[in-house]
Amino acid sequence: MTIDPKVALGAALPTQEFAWTPSDVQLYHLGLGAGARWTDPGELRYLDDRDPQVLPSFATVAATLRATEPPRVSFPGVEIDLAKVVHGSQEVVLHRPIPASGKATSTGRISEIWDKGSAAVIVQETTATGSDGEPLWTARSSIFAKGEGGFSGERGPSLRSELPDRAPDFDVRTPTLPQQALLYRLCGDRNPLHSDPEFARAAGFPNPILHGLCTYGLVCKTAVDTVLDSNAARATGFRARFAGILYPAETIRTRMWLEGSELVIAATVVEREDAPVLGDVRLTFTA
């Protein structure tokens, strides 16, 4: 057993201090394919040298941009082999728009641990506070640890929800690049599952897969560009469950339904008969 729920549940995560610059924001957006429409004014707002607008999904990489080593799944009461772990879900709630440069401190805890029988789900919640003492965002993420269940814990809730029973208001296809994962890993996620063919095969995949958070950011950008007129400042939150894998060079199909100030989204893979890649996706925004 590499999870001790009595120690892990509620345990504080290490405090992190970090900073970012407009160049970091540009690199992140380039990792999501920004600039494909290189003469479009809305697209170029992501890549401005002095004051680029910032997608809410940038919060998922802001603290790890300088990382050059594969991540470790090591917390109080938790020690898990990286090869056993997949990202389960991710949510970012913005308390204000993310500035193009800044300094912040993140604090967090392990908020939930669920026993799924053959696996365990570990939920972390962190809040980033700016240098002015005001909160910037709260992030909530879960990891799915294969073979780590069976500790007689609670199974936890099901997060699956139904899509609206009507045709989508928007239906967009977003291609990815063959080198998409190799570019995105420069944002701090050096997990070899996304770059090393032998590691990927040992983990059960024929080739390296795209980072789930890259897909997450790609879909977030697609929604902002399509529905919010490429105005990232209107987005107040974004969440998704990782429902499948995407290989670099595949195409994401993003179907979107407007429901008041929320966008309900389904993301699938065009080349594999619309196999799901993200589920339970929601983008919240202001008018």
UniProtKB/TrEMBL annotation:
Biological processes annotated in GO: fatty acid beta-oxidation
Annotated InterPro entries: HotDog_dom_sf (IPR029069), MaoC-like_dom (IPR002539), MFE-2_N (IPR054357)
Region (Disordered): 150-171
Biased composition (Basic and acidic residues): 162-171
All copies of domain MaoC-like, residue ranges: 163-270
Span of domain Peroxisomal multifunctional enzyme type 2-like N-terminal: 18-147
GO molecular function, one term: enoyl-CoA hydratase activity
Pfam families registered for this protein in UniProt: MaoC_dehydratas (PF01575), MFE-2_hydrat-2_N (PF22622)
SUPFAM superfamilies: Thioesterase/thiol ester dehydrase-isomerase
Cited PANTHER family: ENOYL-COA HYDRATASE CHSH3, PEROXISOMAL MULTIFUNCTIONAL ENZYME TYPE 2-RELATED
Entry's family note: Belongs to the enoyl-CoA hydratase/isomerase family.
Name of the protein: 3-alpha,7-alpha, 12-alpha-trihydroxy-5-beta-cholest-24-enoyl-CoA hydratase
Protein's organism: Nocardia terpenica
